[in-house]
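Q: What structure does this chain adopt?
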Amino acid sequence: MKKVLDTYSSKNDINIKQIVAYKDNILEIEEYKDGFKKADTMNVMSVTKSVTSLLIGIAIDQGLIKSVDDYVMDYYKETYTPKRGVGKTVI
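A:
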């Protein structure tokens, strides 16, 4: 398999040390460089925000969430009792 990690990171971001990609639940790419191993963790910074926004968009598209203006805890009414004085968190 072509070395995706070296090709991509040399052109875009030299700080990328790991690439793991699945397609249809099948591991397609798993590459590490500069001594990094599978068990090593990385600071993902803004990746988490990007993935969360993608998932919220999908949930809205599928009708699981009505709007980005909904309150998170409205989806946990059966398992959550708000404490006095605690505000609501918007999605």
